[in-house]
Structure formats: structure tokens, C-alpha cells
Design brief:
Blueprint: E1 3-6, H1 12-24, E2 28-31, H2 43-46, E3 56-59, E4 62-65, H3 67-77, H4 79-86, H5 90-124, H6 130-150, H7 164-167, H8 170-179, H9 184-187, H10 190-199, H11 203-212
Parallel strand pairs: 1-2
Antiparallel strand pairs: 1-3, 3-4
């Protein structure tokens, strides 16, 4: 039975889940949710996700939301492929969790604020806070210096294998480069840029971009 993924394929958090499903070779069905008409805030959808956010998955009778929780669940359910995505030793698994936390709390919030102000707000006629964007850029610059240092000593964030820690960054960095035009933050760092070029060339990510219509 295919896993149902509720959410638009062009949205960042559903893309995280889609990339994971493709990496695992799991069948899935995308159920579109129209964010522009606020379908995710309507009663029917709130029964699935009470916070009104995407994505939500339904795996048979099991329902789950929050994209990082979803990718951890999927990798654990399909260990024949998922073991590599979460690490094969206690230490590797701990590093994957560490960098997933870094992505969620030190990276994603800053990228989200930049994209919201530079991409989303102009589309809907809201004012862009350029001072806030500049402040986020300065903070992100320091965060990415730490990434650059880490990637000078390992091929991927959690070690020498591609894991969920790397996968989870794919949507945010794509938005940062191609939507917000902040690619200099990535390309200006040798190790970070080499890592991005490698992970964004994975067949799974190319399939996600095709699904999204890019």
C-alpha cells in the first residue's frame, strides 16, 4: 500500500519527506493541499494535522505529521535501506540526530524567515522587513561557517555516508539559492559548496524537483 503524503510537492517540508521516500524506494501518493486558499487551515485538514501545517502522511491506518519525525519513522520502518540514512552505529545515529537538530533550530528558522520575506510576502502583497532579512543573513553566515568547518573534516554532516542529516537540508538550501537569490552563502564556501553539489545531484532529489515541476 502506497504511503499518502498530504501537501504540495513544491513546498519545502513535503519535499523533505518525498526525498526520503524515494531514497527508500517506497511507493507513495501525493495528495495536493492548496496552501494559497488556506486548505490546510480548514476543518477537514485540521482533523489530520491540528496545527494546520504540511505534510501529513498516512501509512495504512497510521497517521503522522512533522516532516523530520516522518523521515525518521520511514527510515526506521525500512531498515534494509533506512539503516544507512540514520547511521549504523550508536555514534553515527547520534551524529545524525545532532545535525537534524542543528538543521531544525540553527539553520531552518533563519532560511524560513529570509524566504518568507523575500519570496512569499511580495507574492501576497505584504511588506518585506529588509532589516530582519539582513539580520538573519548575518546569523546564517556564522552558522554556515560552522558547516564549512565540519565539512572540511568529513564528506557529509554526520560522517562519510549520506544520511537524513544531509537530506533534510535539501529543500531549504534550494529555496535559499534559487528563490531568495542567496546562493553566495553556499558557493562562497569551498567545502559547503562541494557538499551541496553532491547531495543535490542525487537521483532522489532530481525526482523531487521533477515532481514539483521545476
Amino acid at each position: 500500500m502506497a504511503v499518502k503524503v498530504y501537501g504540495p510537492a513544491r513546498a519545502a517540508c513535503p519535499q523533505r519527506v518525498l526525498a526520503c521516500l524515494i531514497e527508500l524506494g517506497v511507493d507513495f501518493e501525493v495528495i495536493p493541499v492548496d496552501l494559497e486558499s488556506a486548505e490546510h487551515k480548514k476543518p477537514d485538514f485540521l482533523l489530520k494535522q491540528p496545527f494546520g501545517q504540511v505534510p501529513v502522511i498516512e501509512d495504512g491506518d497510521f497517521r503522522l505529521y512533522e516532516s523530520r519525525a516522518i523521515i525518521r519513522y520511514l527510515a526506521a520502518k525500512y531498515p534494509e535501506h533506512g539503516a544507512k540514512l540514520v547511521g549504523t552505529t550508536l555514534e553515527e545515529r547520534a551524529l545524525v540526530d545532532q545535525w537534524l537538530e542543528v538543521e531544525a533550530h540553527n539553520f531552518n528558522d533563519l532560511v524560513y524567515t529570509i524566504v518568507l520575506n523575500l519570496v512569499v510576502f511580495p507574492r501576497i502583497g505584504q511588506r518585506t522587513d529588509l532589516a530582519l532579512v539582513h539580520g538573519c543573513e548575518q546569523k546564517l553566515d556564522k552558522v554556515l561557517d560552522i558547516y564549512e568547518q565540519r565539512l572540511s573534516t568529513s564528506r557529509y554532516l554526520a560522517g562519510e555516508s549520506f544520511t537524513l542529516a544531509d537530506l533534510s537540508h535539501l529543500p531549504g538550501i534550494r529555496y535559499l539559492i534559487h528563490e531568495a537569490n542567496f546562493g553566495h552563502l553556499i558557493t562562497g564556501r569551498k567545502n559547503l559548496n562541494a557538499w551541496w553539489e553532491e547531495i543535490s545531484a542525487r537521483p532522489s532529489w532530481k525526482k523531487v524537483l521533477k515532481l514539483a515541476g521545476y
